[in-house]
## 1
Amino acid sequence: MPRFAAPRPSATRPRTQQEDHRRVDANSWFPTAALRQTGGMESWRDSASQEAQDDFDELLNTVLPFAVETLGRHGEMYPFGATVGKAGHTALTAGEPGVGKRPKSNDVLALLRDGVAADKDALRAAAFVADVRMERSDAIRVELEHSEGSAIVVLVPYTRKRLRRALELADMRVQWGELGIWGGQPK
């Protein structure tokens, strides 16, 4: 039975190409054109309320360190999420679709989205995080959505430092996202 709960990192062996089930393609949930549209984007902050800006900042400050730590420690991660409740409390979320020990990342993302959609009346904002492969690097993708109607995607390319359990992060890229939870239509 599918479950929706707080995430916990699991000890796993390093990922091989055949076992790349936890990684999703960067284009699998967003069109390629949107991923290349980082240069000419007006600032999302110009159209977002102060509350939405603060919620997105809080979500990023919650999920990015967790993603970096998990990828550094284990070399991989399942998608996970975070939410901001109506009272302003932030919580991490995880999904386990109940399809065995190695579910596909897109199945986990779908379960996370379904869980947040079911609770959307009690929430102000949500973030969905995945380890993605871009053309020339790996990246942490964070999809952020706010109940007021703002949606952005943050990509943080990274490389592994040699002989260390650490990541070297490149510059963050931000682009417009699509409303799925509060937009009336599933992504």
Note: The chain has one domain: 3-7+40-176.
## 2
Amino acid sequence: MGAFRLEHFPQVCPICLQHQPYSSLISLNALNPGDGASLLDVVEEYMFPLLPELEQHTPRGVCGPCYVELNAFFAYRIRLKLVGKFVFCLAQLHNGQKNHLEE
């Protein structure tokens, strides 16, 4: 992470805190292609939730590189959940229970 200058806040990416013009930031109201949730919901899930009364004083978008990383992280998290479910089903099958295979 580079140097942070308070005078640029809130015109920064909330993930890397780098100053970006608003026109180059991807709005937090944009939908995440992975699940249709807003970027704000995704950012708040992994970071600190924003208080409604402070929303106007906080960053309004993420930069391109952080957007790509956030989506890669989100996709990785989905894969982990799927593998976890698969391992659970394999354990159930190994234990003689076949009812979880159809899920």
Note: The helical segments are 39-46, 64-94.
## 3
Amino acid sequence: PGRLDLKKLYSLCKDYGYKSSVTTTWHFPEDYFGKFCRSSGLLQSVFLLLIDAFSAVTNPFKFGNAAICYLQKDGDL
């Protein structure tokens, strides 16, 4: 699938009457884990924790390579 700019998403939500909440995250391609971690479970765990920490730090700035979008129609419970 293609990418959708967050500004465009916010604009579409406003135009069609949706409230939105976005959480940005960083994802790392799964096949790269083998290259960087070399089958070390401990190294992989540390690497995933670093990615999660980096995601938490950059989320307030809405900066990441993936986003989780929550949409709710205005007026719905």
Note: The mean pLDDT is 84.
## 4
Amino acid sequence: MASSSSSKTFVAPPLFKAFVYAFHLGLLKSFAYIGSTLAARKTKFPPTITKKLHPSLGEARIFFPPNYTSTGKSRSDPLPTLFSIHGGGFCMGQPANDDHINARLAANCGVLVIALPYPLAPGNSYPAPLYALVSQMRRALQKTGTTEDLPIDTSRIGVIGFSAGGNLALTIQQLLDDAEAVPEIKATIAICPPVSFGLTVPELLERRTPAARAKGDDFLAPWVPRMEWGYVPAGTPLEDPKLSPKFAALNSLSEWIFVVGAECDVLCAEAGAMVAKWIGEEEEYGENGREEMSGRDGKIRWVLAKGQKHSYDHDIPPVLANETPEQLKERKRVDEEIWKKIEACCGDPDYQDELSNVVLWDREKFNNAPIDKIRKDFKRELLIPDMGDDEYSSGDDFETETRKYDLRCQKEAELAEELGNDALAGEVNAWYCLLIDDEVFQSILNAPEPAEGMKMTYGEHYVKIITIYERSLRNDHWPGWGRIDFRLLWWLRDHDEIEQWAPVPDPQREGVYELPVIDGNL
């Protein structure tokens, strides 16, 4: 190990060991980069927009909540904003790794989520990532009120970080105190953060709870000294609060602090001890750990994810390969705690009320329902005239078709008078969105096909199509949410792939369109 905690400064390992660390990190970074890049290209949770906020880094990925559009057509009010910082041991990773989390945070909490990149170690060691993050936050705020406007509510800003990103989230406020034009961070959420440096691997393993030790070694443990070597320059004081938030004064941090630890994580005990110290319990985290701790009238909170490993909220094979039903239930419980904390400290109190106009949710209606029944049930709700027996038919003669056309125009005029012309203007009303969970979605997929007479061959008039987390070519689409437009027909470019879509210019035909899925898990 590179150092002992009593040495007070970080001591570089011997040259040969440093070479081995560099070699191991290089291999890990290469595999991680390839995997992350491929995953990002196939993401089911694309950002609403991307923006370059730093000249030498990649683009920030920005997620809007479903009741807001990036063009400001739905609302003009500023949004509570959450800056998201990815993990990866300070040495690897990219913002796209957290798309599945950030998309759901935006959808469930009604916040604008801005996922920031930062320069990676060992080429960019402490404190370079911190300054790069501050620079991007400042630039994002400077764009407010310009042609590149981001609707940021500067009175409600939070930061969330995962793993190494949790460390950066906890320490960045101390730099922001000295940064011009950057307001105070109101809330910090840190998931599985490293909060101190210099402990040996045996010390880290021994500090876990007896229940965690009984499960064997942690997959992260052997990588801790390698990542510390990459991030911490030799001679750096280990109790520097900008490096180790465990030693930060509470008055230098945000008003609201929420820390999540994974019980089987070697980093958990140090994070728990940090929170215990902040709430005045003199590091009495205890040998068996603490499942929950609260202080400062609930504004400081610790939650232990029981039975979970490091990065349990990410799709990492060593973590989720053998996830039990109990662990899945625990993961959902902690997810809900995170959402509630964000809503309490910087969320929009009216967001859930507004969603009552957005979400069309009727479990009984959708469960095991045929596609044609769903289409029929939503026709009136989607402001399309109900023609009854006078719907267009391919067998209509000219006189019948003319009569039906005149009748449709009359019904459209009646709807326009009642609901406004915008309701009939080529796009479905932006407030009509559908939220269903995975169980209901699967039941729809397994439901009977539409009536035989409604089926058409590929490339013609009607095809049964349901998209999952895909941005359509005609409508803005938020991950987990989607507009349903029954006046557009979509056709599948490849019957075996659901990612490829193109519109068919035949708006008078009916079809089944965006039925996205969100199951409420981070």
Note: The chain has a mean pLDDT of 70.
